[in-house]
Design a protein that fits this description.
Layout (H helix, E strand, L loop, with lengths): L6 H8 L20 H4 L11 H9 L3 H9 L7 E5 L2 E4 H18 L6 E5 L4 H13 L2 E4 L6 H11 L3 E5 L2 H9 L9 E5 L16 E2 L1 H5 L18 E7 L7 E6 H13 L9 E4 L6 H12 L3 E4 L8 H8 L3 E4 L1 H8 L11 E4 L6 H12 L7 E4 L9 E2 L12 E2 L4 E5 L15 E6 L6 E2 L3 H7 E3 L5 E11 L5 E6 L3 E4 L2 E4 H9 L4 E11 L3 E10 L5 H15 L8 E5 L13 H6 L8 E4 L2 E4 L9
Parallel strand pairs: 1-11, 3-4, 3-5, 4-8, 5-6, 6-7, 10-11, 10-12, 12-13, 13-14, 26-27, 27-29
Antiparallel strand pairs: 1-2, 8-9, 9-19, 14-15, 15-16, 17-18, 18-21, 20-21, 21-22, 23-24, 25-26, 28-29
Length: 611
């Protein structure tokens, strides 16, 4: 869609004395009604000290910024807790330098990319920071990815080395990716606890155990190392696309520095007198917020490598963190637990999934009686280094996903355009974000990059989120739904068109459409409406589809229900699938649908809209 330029509207918005479409807010005596200019949320933030600005501006890499910040604390300050051990600032600095030496003796240099598929252990943070110091790039892959998707991510980044947690199924998945003849030279297995090798019978000439890798620590570096720069790529994380092909979000040192800088100096309560517990997998940008980002803010972080939802309340009670980053499902597990004292939990933070206002209110009411602070929602995608907004300390609004960070600008635009809507009238539109945390690009994918990053008439690059929302007069953002065909099932994103594409590739059905359904247990689940070929056995077809989908995707992609239909609705104008009609049907209404297990059939033929 082409973007129009309305000169009169622009002059009204920005003032006729700004030929480069900029305005100095301090010199303006009149509020414009446009959030990109007024920034109404700034009243909730304190000014950033000049010394902090100078440190941020002079740091050359994320590692450099990390090192300069933690160096402000005593060498024996605790930053990490894991497996019964505590690690101080000095411990961390030593571990990073060890990995700098080991990586360098593997031949890793500035600009190289190293892949990781690991569980949440401190080693991944040490290795990431060591690579960043060298100027190399970390390629983070989820532990449950299929071999063909792993291969795509390895080839996209031309990785020679792949570090994998020494868990048999993870090692096997990494080895299975080799069948595609990718660029890997070595897969290096990393134990969950250093010195404790897991028993496993997998052998392959490309496997290297951790003790062999560590022998590189005994050799001096034979070449002079070149350190990274502010504009260099620092990390690649992945997000799904409309076709299901994973897109590599390319985040630079500048993006990561700006993320941590914003976290530290925004009024979010990320302060050094607090302790956090992290359960996130090290394959998402949010992970870097919750580990290295919080450490830059001075927090101590407890690492939990794996857990089950039912165990989460006991983990929180055991480690007694002040701050947690958790989705609604985990917050519910706390309020439904039998633990009565949560007085230590001052900052329960919610993100990654929609937290309905009624749920948030119920949590606050129940947990306040047990001493906990109120839940505070935040918002941000990998494309914006995972944090763009958060409810401020002691000033949250129920149902809001917060105010923008100190160094981030958020506004509402007419969907798909650069026409900014007035926050003073609370108009609903697309949430767009600009600022130094916005990604550089989708790696080697200019088409998808240009669909998300768009230069607006103000000359700035804005990230279009495909999410709908409103801003209020105080700068608080409220999420109003997803424009994307995507759902979040038990905290994991599921791309509906990916299910359709994979199912159609089998050729055993006539047509299909994947839709989302609200679910009490998993929040949102995929439902697949299918049109069968003549004389098909329904049970056999459903079993085949289940097996095929689980072979190519995580189990969260397997539909909870299959709706057997005679036809599917298409629009008359452009013949696009009208999935909204299907989503609006109540398929669990037994008056109109017959439900047998996971198979559902309409009782009446004309429930589906016809054109």
């Amino acid at each position: 869609m082409s973007l129009h330029f309305d000169e009169k509207e622009l002059i009204e918005k920005l003032g006729d004395n700004n030929s480069r479409f900029k305005i100095n807010r301090e010199e303006s005596t009149k509020m414009t009604g446009y959030a990109s200019v007024d920034k109404p949320w700034m009243k909730w933030h304190q000014p950033i000290p000049k010394s902090a600005q100078e440190l941020y501006e002079t740091a050359t890499t994320f590692y450099d910024y990390f090192k300069k910040n933690i160096s402000q604390y005593d060498i024996d300050k605790k930053f990490i807790e894991y497996n019964g051990h505590e690690y101080t600032r000095l411990d961390i600095e030593k571990e990073i330098e060890k990995h700098v030496l080991m990586f360098s003796n593997l031949g890793i240099r500035r600009g190289d990319t190293v892949s990781f598929m690991m569980l949440n252990v401190p080693e991944i943070v040490y290795m990431f920071l060591a690579l960043n110091k060298i100027g190399a790039v970390a390629n983070l892959i989820k532990f449950d990815e299929s071999p063909n998707r792993i291969n795509h991510m390895i080839e996209l980044t031309k990785s020679k080395y792949f570090f994998v947690s020494e868990v048999p199924f993870m090692v096997q998945s990494a080895l299975d990716s080799l069948q595609y003849k990718n660029s890997l030279e070595k897969i290096i297995t990393v134990p969950l606890v250093d010195g404790m090798q897991e028993a496993n019978n997998i052998t392959n000439e490309k496997l290297m155990n951790y003790s062999t890798y560590k022998k590189n620590n005994l050799k001096p570096i034979s070449v002079e190392l070149s350190e990274g720069q502010d504009t260099d790529s620092a990390v690649i994380v992945y997000t799904g696309g409309s076709t299901g092909t994973p897109k590599g979000v390319n985040l630079t040192n500048h993006n990561l520095k700006s993320m941590a800088y914003g976290m530290k100096y925004s009024n979010y309560g990320f302060t050094s007198n607090k302790k956090s517990m992290n359960i996130l997998p090290p394959a998402i940008a949010y992970y870097l917020n919750a580990t290295a980002g919080l450490m830059i803010c001075g927090l101590e972080v407890t690492f939990i490598p794996n857990f089950e939802i039912k165990d989460y309340p006991n983990l929180v009670n055991k480690y007694r963190p002040n701050m947690i980053f958790a989705g609604p499902v985990l917050l519910k597990s706390l309020q439904y637990s039998e633990i009565n004292d949560y007085s230590f939990l001052t900052d329960p933070m919610s993100g990654g999934d929609k937290y309905y206002e009624s749920e948030e209110a119920e949590f606050d009411e129940i947990m306040s009686k047990r001493g906990a602070g109120p839940a505070r929602q935040g918002y941000g995608a990998s494309e914006e280094t995972a944090i763009a907004t958060c409810n401020p300390l002691n000033a949250k609004k129920l149902g809001s996903i917060g105010i923008p960070m100190h160094n981030v600008t958020v506004s509402i635009f007419e969907y798909g355009t650069d026409k900014e809507l007035k926050y003073t009238s609370k108009e609903e539109g697309e949430i767009c974000i600009t600022g130094p945390t916005v990604m550089k690009e989708y790696l080697d994918n200019p088409v998808e990059t240009n669909a998300v990053l768009k230069r607006h008439r103000d000359g700035l690059i804005w990230a279009h989120t495909d999410d709908l929302g409103i801003l209020d007069e105080d700068g608080f953002l409220f999420h109003r739904g997803r424009a994307k065909r995507m759902l979040t099932r038990s905290g994991a994103k599921v791309w509906l068109s990916s299910i359709e594409e994979e199912v159609k590739s089998l050729g055993i059905i006539t047509d299909c459409c994947a839709t989302k359904l609200n679910d009490d247990l998993e929040r949102e689940v995929p439902v697949l409406s299918i049109v069968l070929k003549e004389n098909s056995n329904v049970e056999e077809i459903v079993n085949q589809l289940d097996n095929h989908i689980s072979l190519h995707f995580p189990d969260t992609y397997v539909p909870k229900y299959y709706v057997i239909r005679e036809s599917l609705p298409y629009s008359a104008t452009n013949r696009k699938m009208d999935f909204k009609t299907l989503e609006n049907e109540n398929i669990l209404d037994t008056d109109n649908f017959e439900i047998i297990g996971k198979i559902i059939r309409p009782k009446h033929k004309k429930l589906v809209k016809e054109y």
